[in-house]
């Protein structure tokens, strides 16, 4: 198999995944998440039901297609912090960048999409799971950064720090959804989130401001 053939196959897979996700989102917004079946999504997307489940093993992830980026983001930020930068400073900086770019991982979406999430018990539960998964991934990154590994798991301080940082991200995400459902403009939401983030991270500064500072050059 040539590199060109592999590239074409990879592109075809990305296009198929995106088409399925877009079709599912359209149906969810039209009829509500709970009312739409995988079989109906497959039929509307022109693919087999098994194709849908191969790309999206969980129905919830058809609506929350950024779940991998959402979970991995803060941990990647900690691992990529600059020399002399603490975990807190890196996470605050990355969050403000996400708000400036109006990223979905920060909670930016249209009001219909935000309502779909908040009105679906299944999706709301999945969002809570994703927050927990993100906190666990962040704890692992913090443990690596501070050499605090307890057996094969992050140590206590790393888990406590991740819980504090994760709590800030979770509350800010909920605030973004709440303001979106209330039909606030993206600009107004961005201003409110930036201000709230600065206040929240400032509250953590006394205890975590000097935590996990990168010392290598």
UniProtKB/TrEMBL annotation:
Entry keyword Protein biosynthesis: no
Record-linked InterPro entries: Homeodomain-like_sf, HTH-type_TetR-like_transc_reg, HTH_TetR
**Domain of life here?**
Bacteria
Keywords of the record, alphabetical order, are: DNA-binding, Transcription, Transcription regulation
- One Pfam family, short name: TetR_N
Molecular function, one GO term: transcription cis-regulatory region binding
* Residue ranges of every copy of the HTH tetR-type domain listed in the record: 14-74
UniProt DNA-binding region: 37-56
PANTHER family cross-referenced by the UniProt entry: HTH-TYPE TRANSCRIPTIONAL REGULATOR BETI (PTHR30055:SF234), HTH-TYPE TRANSCRIPTIONAL REGULATOR RUTR (PTHR30055)
The name this protein carries in UniProt is: TetR family transcriptional regulator
Q: Which organism is it from?
A: Actinomadura harenae
């Amino acid at each position: 198999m040539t590199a060109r053939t592999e590239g074409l196959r990879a592109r075809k897979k990305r296009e198929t995944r995106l088409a399925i996700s877009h079709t599912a989102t359209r149906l969810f917004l039209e009829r509500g998440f709970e009312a739409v079946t995988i079989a109906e999504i497959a039929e509307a997307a022109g693919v087999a039901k098994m194709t849908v489940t191969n790309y999206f093993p969980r129905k919830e992830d058809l609506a929350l297609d950024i779940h991998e980026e959402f979970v991995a983001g803060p941990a990647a930020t900690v691992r990529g912090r600059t020399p002399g930068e603490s975990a807190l400073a890196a996470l605050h900086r990355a969050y403000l960048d996400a708000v400036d770019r109006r990223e979905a991982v920060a909670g930016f979406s249209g009001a219909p999409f935000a309502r779909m999430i908040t009105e679906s018990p299944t999706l709301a539960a999945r969002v809570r799971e994703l927050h927990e998964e993100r906190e666990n991934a962040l704890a692992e990154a913090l443990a690596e950064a501070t050499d605090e590994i307890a057996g094969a798991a992050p140590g206590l301080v790393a888990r406590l720090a991740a819980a504090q940082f994760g709590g800030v991200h979770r509350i800010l995400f909920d605030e973004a959804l709440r303001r979106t459902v209330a039909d606030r403009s993206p600009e107004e939401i961005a201003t409110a989130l930036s201000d709230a983030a600065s206040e929240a991270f400032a509250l953590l500064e006394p205890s975590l401001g000097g935590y996990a500072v990168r010392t290598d050059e």
